[in-house]
Amino acid sequence: MERMADKVLSGHCYCGAVKFEAHGDSEWVGHCHCESCRRYSGSAMTTFAGFKREQVVYTGTMPNRYSSGDGVTRSFCGQCGSSVAYENAGEADSIHLHLGLFDDLEQLVPQDHSFLSEKASWLHADEHLPESKWSFPAQD
């Protein structure tokens, strides 16, 4: 059986320039419906896997970073534009990686939804999952 310290999940952006490894298990995996994530990703919802910052190592080109001034920093590939990560000053020791970039999605199963009050009314995805208990408000 694989020990947590031995578990390595890899991923990369669309063009392959930004590559990363996440060592050990994720803290959580969930869908976010907030307006900020929708606008940034261009999708009706965004799905993230949350890790402690020390678990994540970039092995390719470092992603570009955009700080919106509200404590939120988002990372993206400077070549292809793929969304890579979300960071919030309120959770300084965590990084949320976009689930679609992982090489093996089967190891990262969503557990909940965030900001359901901002969900598109026509979206019906994983409705059996509970709503998470995020401690900071959605960012516009």
Polypeptide structure, described:
The protein is mainly β. The protein is built from one helix and ten strands, in the order βββαβββββββ. The chain has one helix at about 35-40, and strands at about 10, 20-25, 30, 45-50, 55-60, 65, 70-75, 85-90, 95-100, 110-115. The strands form two sheets. It has a seven-stranded mixed β-sheet. A three-stranded antiparallel β-sheet has the order 1-2-5, with no helix packed on it.
- Helix and strand succession? EEEHEEEEEEE
Q: Termini distance?
A: 43 Å
Classify the beta-strand content into a percent band: 25-35%
Mean pLDDT: 86
Class by SSE composition: mainly beta
Query: Share of helix among residues?
Result: under 10%
What is the C-level CATH assignment?
A: Mainly Beta
Low-confidence stretches: 135-140
Describe the largest sheet.
Answer: 7 strands, mixed
Tell me the count of domains: 1
Concise overview:
This protein is mainly β. It is 5% helix and 34% strand. It has a single domain (4-118), classed as Metal Binding Protein, Guanine Nucleotide Exchange Factor, Chain A.
Give me some keywords for this one.
single chain; mainly beta; Metal Binding Protein, Guanine Nucleotide Exchange Factor, Chain A; disordered C terminus
Task: Please render the helix and strand layout as text.
Blueprint: E1 8-12, E2 19-23, E3 28-32, H1 35-41, E4 46-52, E5 56-58, E6 64-67, E7 72-76, E8 83-88, E9 94-98, E10 112-114
Parallel strand pairs: 3-10
Antiparallel strand pairs: 1-2, 2-5, 3-4, 4-9, 6-7, 7-8, 8-9
